[in-house]
Amino acid sequence: MAKPKSTSGVISSVDHAVDLIEMLSVHGTATVSEIARTTGLPRPTVYRLLRTLAARKITGMDGKRHHLTLRLHELGVRARSVDMFQQRVQPILDRIVAATGLTAHLAVRDGNTAAFVAKRDGPEAMPMASRIGWRGPLHCTAVGKVLLAEDDSQPELPLVRQTNQTIVDPSLLAKALEDVRRDGYALDDEELLPGLRCVAVPWRDGEALIGAISVSGRSDEVADPAGLAEVLRNNLG
């Protein structure tokens, strides 16, 4: 199992952890001595790696023998699900960009943030912070308001001011979320970035919320939020 490696740019502890995981994937279970002998790693290093992996629930123990848990399988399934999720939404975003010329996003809730999991740039998109993997605040993004309107049960939500337009008063945010539920769409009116407006609508699978889909552009490009919301809804199917 031990093998010569190029060390350029390699973090040795991560490299050793992968060696250990690969060894257990082949052998099923092993003692510390067996892991050290097979991987060529010093026993103290093996102990430290196993403690770390066990703390992250990647390995477990039966007596003195260590084994992999289902955690890596779960992560693999989740990664595959995200990939399939993005494949499902990309045609929707393509249609929205074609219909509006604006940048389209899909975001899902991740704690107190809106996690952006898919994006399609408009043909003349203005620069913006969003990218796949970016997490934005819930209270001052259109997608975040849609997600909050579905479940605004977190009283400790931080209301950090981003621009002069940002809603930082909890009572005003509550009123804005009532408007989202009534109108079926949310507006970010230069609340995250000056000059940027966004409109978002919920994307559902039956009654269950999948996430929020939005379009973003310069303020003059997003002059008719209700009309853009209708375009978004018409292209979700």
Write the layout of secondary structure elements.
Blueprint: H1 12-27, E1 29-30, H2 32-39, H3 43-55, E2 59-62, E3 65-68, H4 71-100, E4 103-110, E5 113-120, E6 135-137, H5 142-150, H6 170-183, E7 186-189, E8 196-205, E9 208-218, H7 225-234
Antiparallel strand pairs: 1-3, 2-3, 4-5, 4-9, 5-6, 7-8, 8-9
Helix pairs in contact: 1-3, 5-6
What does this structure look like?
The protein is of the alpha+beta class. Helix content is about 40%, strand content about 25%. The strands form 2 sheets. The chain has a 6-stranded antiparallel sheet with strand order 6-5-4-9-8-7, sandwiched between helices. A hairpin with a 6-residue loop joins strand 7 (about 185-190) and strand 8. Helix 1 (about 10-25) packs across helix 3. The longest helix is centred in the middle third of the chain and has 30 residues, at about 70-100. The chain is elongated. About 30% of the residues are buried.
